[in-house]
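Q: Convert this sequence to structure tokens.
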Amino acid sequence: MAIEDFGKIEKIARVTHEANRAWCISHGDHSQYCWADAPDWQKDSAINGVKFHLENTHASPSESHDNWLKQKQEEGWVYGEEKDVEKKTHPCMVPYDQLPVMQQSKDSLFRGIVHALKKSKSNTYSMDLDIWTMGGWGTVLIGLIDTIKELEEHRPTLSVDERLSVLEDRFMTNDICRSPANCAAIWFMCSLLHYAFRKCKVLPTEATLDALHKVVCKASDSMRDGEPYIVAS
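A:
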């Protein structure tokens, strides 16, 4: 993918921003705005992060944070216990190894998503990104991450097939998968999370990753065969 293709970079940045927002919400942080309402400085930060990983393909999550920290320092931000846009204070203005695990995981997820999205160079890739930008899918992603978190923290003894049933009951429904485009969007998000989590080893166990992979495979079969992948109304 050409680095100068700003339109595609901005689309990837949008996905990383919404995934970051979903991750924050699932951990009790509701301070993030959706991409459409986000201030320009926040969008620029995501775009800068995407460019960094496209230009430094082997950069670690720690180096990703260092890049973010450098940009923030250049813009006049300093450490503060509370994030304050007016005062330019932020609790993450510390070295990577001093970040809470939740924040370190966010850097890993960001990196994983960029590398997942840069892999495909086909027309399907562009279609997937366009599907992502449809309204309402940020809410579905939040639900997916919340469900994964629930499976890991509160239902750790479930088998792969039982985890698959939980995912299907919540997301492969008439309300969500009422059209091929919506089914494609679910396929896209599950593929994205499966790749990013497996690549960065952020959160889920193998059982949850395998369940996500089964959703991806079944959604792919559904799109190929033209049959709806719906298991619940």
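Strands lie at 78-79, 89-90.
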